[in-house]
Specification:
The chain is of the alpha/beta class. The protein has eight helices and four strands, in the order βαβαβααβαααα. It starts with a strand and ends with a helix. The radius of gyration is 16 Å and the shape is globular. A four-stranded parallel β-sheet has the order 3-2-1-4, sandwiched between helices. Helix 4 (about 80-100) runs parallel beside helix 5. The chain has helices at about 10-20, 40-55, 70-75, 80-100, 120-130, 145-155, 165-175, 175-180, and strands at about 1-5, 25-30, 60, 105-110. Strand 1 (about 1-5), helix 1 and strand 2 (about 25-30) form a beta-alpha-beta unit.
Length: about 180
C-alpha cells in the first residue's frame, strides 16, 4: 500500500513512519503549513523535517505558500471549533494531494499525539476520505509517544512547544495570571 502521511513536524512523524514501514506500507509525507504561526516557526519545523527526512530516506511534499490569513478567516469567531476546522483543512488537503498522486490512502502524524482529539481526527479523516474518494487510514500511534520524544531528543531535532496555530501558541505561553499583572 502507498500512503500519504500528513506530517505536522519531524518529532511527531518518527514513530508513525517507523510503524507504517514495519507494516510494509510505502509512506510519503505531506507538510501542511498554513496553520503554523509565526512564519519563523513554520520555517523551523520545515527545516527540521527536511533534515530528518533526508536522514531516513523519507520523501516529503511541502505545501507551497503561507496562507495564514485564510486559516485565520476560517477560524475567527469560531475559536472554540478551531481544532476541528484545522483538522479538516489539513486532512482535506492531504486527501486531495493523495488522490492526485495516486496514493492508496492517507493518514496523519496528528494520531501520534496524546494532546490531539483522536475521535474527531478519525471522523473527519473518514468523512473527507469518502468525499475526496480515497480511504483514510486510522492507526493510533500514541503507544509510541515516549519513544518518539526520546528519539527526537537523541537526534537533536527541534521540538516545538505548541501545536502550531496562533491560539495554541497563546495557550502555551500566556497564563491567566498574566492578565492580572497588566
Amino acid at each position: 500500500m502507498k500512503l500519504l502521511l500528513h506530517t505536522c513536524c519531524a518529532p511527531c512523524a518518527i514513530y508513525p513512519i517507523e510503524t507504517l514501514r514495519k507494516d510494509g506500507i510505502e509512506v510519503m509525507g505531506f507538510f501542511y503549513r498554513h496553520n503554523i504561526h509565526p512564519y519563523t516557526e513554520c520555517l523551523k519545523r520545515q527545516e527540521t523535517l527536511t533534515a530528518f527526512a533526508e536522514s531516513i530516506d523519507f520523501k516529503v511534499i511541502f505545501q507551497n505558500g503561507y496562507d495564514l490569513e485564510g486559516f485565520l478567516q476560517r477560524t475567527v469567531f469560531r475559536e472554540s471549533s478551531r481544532c476541528e476546522i484545522c483538522y479538516h483543512d489539513r486532512l482535506r488537503t492531504t486527501a486531495i494531494v493523495a488522490k492526485k498522486g495516486n496514493f492508496d490512502s492517507f493518514s496523519s502524524s496528528l494520531l501520534y499525539s496524546k494532546f490531539q482529539n483522536h475521535e474527531m481526527i478519525r471522523a473527519i479523516g473518514e468523512s473527507v476520505g469518502k468525499t475526496v474518494g480515497i480511504p483514510f487510514y486510522y492507526l493510533d500511534f500514541r503507544s509510541g509517544w515516549k519513544y518518539g520524544i526520546e528519539t527526537s531528543k537523541r537526534l537533536g531535532l527541534y521540538r516545538q512547544l505548541y501545536c502550531g496555530c496562533i491560539y495554541s501558541e497563546k495557550e502555551r505561553y500566556y497564563s491567566p495570571s498574566e492578565r492580572q499583572k497588566g
